[in-house]
Design brief:
Blueprint lengths: L1 H18 L19 E6 L5 E5 L5 E2 L5 H9 L9 E3 L2 H10 L11 E3 H9 L4 H11 L5 H18 L19 E2 L1 H11 L3 H7 L3 E2 L2 E3 L5 E3 L3 E2 L4 H4 L3 E9 L3 E10 L2 E10 L2 H17 L1
Antiparallel strand pairs: 1-2, 1-13, 3-6, 4-5, 7-10, 8-9, 11-12, 12-13
Length: about 290
């Protein structure tokens, strides 16, 4: 009797499977995530397809996410020598103090390589490193002229990418009222920057220790620079990219991650806290990977 019942169950189950009755349940529609940030955007980095938008074309202050373009301009210089040395000037230190700005704690008189400055720019978000790079790679006979020239290069790159809602008036995000972008534009800048192997290597680094050359020619081992991007430690597949914050910008985060060969890249602007911007980014990446 038991054998007959078991056989009947097998036959019945087979019949159900054959008709496909168990395989026709509709796929659950993805629920668009709710984020704290005022603006957000995510795209498939491989295809450029937009996967999520929230006020994606509204211009906002970008804080230190501006430094993505700073790094991009430096890395796009022809015949770039990453081992070229730059002497740290007192002006860079004074600038940090005057603006209560984030710092790589570079020491006046030390010789620091361009590569080290890029790490100091992107990990601890050093505005002193940004100043040094602008001074090094701008053109002109005065520091002010070189900085103006460098910011001009930043704006030219934005224009070359076809971006109409982005303007830079600073090399680090401490603007003079005209430093803005949008979630969509910042994501496009980052997607372009990620084509550089050097950029990718820098922004995915959690910690970096620079060894600089002092005035006397000795070697100084700097205190390690820790990446301000918490996603590198808390989100599987995270490959960068840059945090930003400020009184006007609030809390910003440009992010990217790769899973199963798919890379998504995106931006949240004007979130409510460090925790919230990371939570926003995780939601958007999860959504992007599921799309």
């Amino acid at each position: 009797m038991r054998v007959r019942r078991a056989a009947a169950v097998v036959v019945t189950t087979g019949a159900v499977l054959a008709t496909g009755a168990l395989g026709t349940a509709p796929a659950q529609a993805l629920t668009k995530p709710t984020i704290a940030a005022k603006g957000g955007f995510v795209m498939n980095n491989g295809t450029g397809k937009s996967l999520y938008t929230k006020a994606a074309d509204t211009r906002r202050s970008t804080g230190s996410t501006t430094k993505i373009m700073t790094a991009k301009v430096v890395l796009s210089q022809s015949n770039l020598n990453l081992d070229a040395k730059v002497t740290i000037q007192k002006a860079y230190s004074d600038y940090i103090v005057a603006n209560t700005a984030s710092s790589a704690r570079l020491i006046v008189g030390d010789k620091v390589t361009v590569r080290q400055l890029l790490y100091g720019l992107m990990l601890p978000s050093g505005c002193d490193a940004a100043y040094a790079l602008a001074d090094k790679f701008g053109s002109g006979s005065t520091r002010a002229a070189r900085v103006k020239s460098f910011i001009g290069k930043m704006n030219k790159q934005a224009k070359d990418l076809g971006l109409t809602n982005t303007k830079f008036d600073s090399f680090d995000g401490i603007g003079n009222g005209s430093n803005y972008s949008t979630p969509r534009d910042l994501t496009k800048i980052t997607s372009s920057a990620l084509k550089s192997a050097n950029f990718r290597a820098i922004v995915k680094t959690k910690k970096y220790t620079a060894k600089t050359v002092t005035k006397t020619g000795s070697t100084r081992t700097m205190a390690p620079w820790t990446n301000t991007n918490g996603l590198l430690s808390s989100y599987s597949g995270s490959i960068g990219v840059k945090t930003g914050s400020g009184p006007e910008a609030k809390y910003c985060l440009v992010f990217a991650a790769t899973r199963n060969g798919k890379t998504v890249v995106g931006t949240v602007l004007a979130s409510t806290s460090i925790t919230a911007r990371e939570s926003d980014a995780k939601k958007l990446m999860n959504y992007g990977f599921a799309s």
